[in-house]
Amino acid sequence: MQRIKIKDLLKSTNYGSKVCIKGWVRSKRDSKTVAFVAINDGSIIHNIQAVIDTPNFEEDYLKDVQTGACVKIEGTLVQSQGKGQSVEIQASSVEVYGKADPETFPLQKKGHSLEFLREIAHLRPRTNTFGAILRMRHAMAFAVHQFFNSKGFVYVHTPIITGADCEGAGEMFRVTTMDLKKIPIENGQVNFENDFFGKETSLTVSGQLNGELAAMALGEIYTFGPTFRAENSNTSRHLAEFWMIEPEVAFNELDDNMNLAEDFLKYLVKYALENCSDDLEFLTNLYDKELINKLKFVVENDFIRLTYTEGVEILKHCGHKFEYKVDWGTDLQSEHERYLVEKHFKKPVILTNYPKEIKAFYMKQDADGKTVRAMDVLFPGIGEIIGGSQREENYEKLIARVRELGMSEKELWWYLDTRKFGTAPHAGFGLGFERLMLFVTGMGNIRDVIPFPRTPKNAEF
Ligand code: ATP
Ligand code: MN
């Protein structure tokens, strides 16, 4: 018999029909003559209940139908007598594909802590919470592509191994095939000549520089790939391996960039509300009663836009005691960003025109010589969700900044070439995919919105 997914079966009104489902047992309740087994196959958060009249089965036949086991059940679809489900299966045959010993299966009971589940990341997709998160992660990834595709953007695959160390020196993971016991050192320097690429290489911290090259030919592009940062900060918002979406658009200036970022975020959140209602309801009930309202609020309200300088003025005079002091010229901490969003404006905020010293070399310089056309989008509960800017398209100004920062012109020759040959105003930004997932799922820790988190001292699964 053809297997039917539980998601489809729960919608069916074809009572009396013969059906076959396959999935994992979530719970089993026994009485004298009947067993109720709840089965989930990952297609939807809800389980289907199979009713097994035990006298119809040989003794011992059902002993392996235990929480965690994988089963195939055939039977008749009937209208449910019990509360909480519309249909159930009156089982006629039960086959166990894989047993799960009740003595050792770690997900025997409900209600494990998220911390405990992180230690069994190989099994946590079997819980309601991680099923919901992983389905939503898929929905959001799909929506990212749908948004850009509908606007005519080209998806560009930028390299994961990079020879450019300009962006995040110190934060980068090295890539090498050298024998670590025999590193060739000359005059205190490693000689990479005989390494795989013949030069020092690392895992990328961002696809942006390559993305810019593509935008200078295709006009509107985006990247969506893994990025790696060896920042040793054990926070609830940083991973060593995370996914980033980076659109880059020729002829866009800072205002266009802000409009694109706001439209994009609203589109994604709206997509979640419209397409993930079961999972969202579950997460709202279990973790954050206000979750769905918070998502609606973001879709329905304009983001506040103000300059870094204005933001710093508000923070300096707000009377709130911060752990880190705010002064013009210092980078804002998450506590400052969240104060502006959650306490002062009570709306998402786009901060612009940051001091050039705390931003990257490629950002377009403002006429005052002090600030650059940066923009960070700040979200409630998270702080920075997007970082972006209009790029410096002027060759002389860009090279002056590169020299000022003591960066290597020689290594960056290919990037600087775009400003030599047919340069154009352009802008882009990076959305951290897991920061988005934190927002739409209401989870508090970034380790819980990626299947297998990579953080300092943690790469087990
Ligand atoms: P933060 O100040 O929060 O550390 P950043 O300024 O270093 O972030 P950018 O270099 O601007 O971040 O990267 C663009 C986006 O990538 C950020 O807005 C954020 O959403 C995401 N991001 C950056 N670092 C991480 C990380 N370690 N883990 C997960 N997401 C990250
Ligand atoms: Mn940033």
In which order are the strands of the major sheet placed?
A: 6-12-13-18-17-16-15-14
Strand % is 15-25%
Structural class: alpha+beta
Total DSSP helices: 12
Low-pLDDT windows of residues? none
Brief sketch in words of this structure:
By secondary structure, the chain is of the alpha+beta class. 29% of the residues lie in helices and 25% in strands. Helix 3 packs across helix 5 (254-275), helix 3 (128-150) packs across helix 12 (433-441) and helix 5 packs antiparallel against helix 7.
3D architecture notes:
By secondary structure, the chain is of the alpha+beta class. It has two domains: 93 residues, Nucleic acid-binding proteins (OB fold (Dihydrolipoamide Acetyltransferase, E2P)), CATH 2.40.50; 325 residues, 2-Layer Sandwich (BirA Bifunctional Protein, domain 2), CATH 3.30.930.10. It has twelve helices and 18 strands. It has an eight-stranded mixed sheet with strand order 6-12-13-18-17-16-15-14. Strands 1-2-3-5-4 form a five-stranded mixed β-barrel. The protein is elongated and about 85 Å long. The chain binds adenosine-5'-triphosphate and manganese (II) ion. Adenosine-5'-triphosphate (ATP) binds next to strand 13, strand 17, strand 18 and helix 12.
